[in-house]
Amino acid sequence: MTALPRSEYVSLTTFRRTGAPVATPVWAATDGERLVVWTRADSGKVKRLRHTSRVTVAPCDVRGRTTGPAVDGVAGFVAPADQAQALAALRRDYGLKFTLGNATSRLWHRLLRREGERHELISIRPA
Q1: Pick from 18, 102, 24, 98: which is nearest to 56 by CA?
Q2: Phi/psi at 118 (nearest 5 deg)?
Q3: SS3 at position 49
Q4: Cα separation of 78 and 88, whole Å?
Q5: pLDDT band at 1 (very low <50, low <70, confident <90, very high)
Q6: Which of the two residues, 36 and 101, has the higher pLDDT score?
Q7: What does the pLDDT read at residue 59?
Q8: Are 93 and 36 within 8 A, CB to CB?
Q9: Where is the Pyridoxamine 5'-phosphate oxidase N-terminal domain (predicted)?
Q10: Which of 83, 79, 60, 57 is closest to 70 using CA atoms?
Q11: What share of the chain is helix, strand, coil (3-state, %, to 5)?
Q12: Strand 119-126 with 34-40, pairing
């Protein structure tokens, strides 16, 4: 089992129903053996993960240019009971950047009076 990459940004590759890969640079905090990703609930990566849990993860820069080898992984959604621990990992790894981003997102969600969850927490483990 290969360890998942640790860097400020990782390229998370999810797969369409056709098998075509879609890579996206994301923040990923370490939480034990897993990586935790915070993303919009209506994002494409969330929709793709609903039908296949197969992912690859590689270290990258902010623009998504990979800087190391990709590792196969299995992704799933963080259970509500574990969300506080996952959010704490993101706050620990990203500090003020995550706190401000989360607060801004919550405010924007309330101002627009949108229904439902605005974000999803994704857990990634090595395959």
Answers
A1: 24
A2: -95, -25
A3: helix
A4: 13
A5: very low
A6: 36
A7: 94
A8: no
A9: 3-95
A10: 57
A11: 30, 35, 35
A12: antiparallel
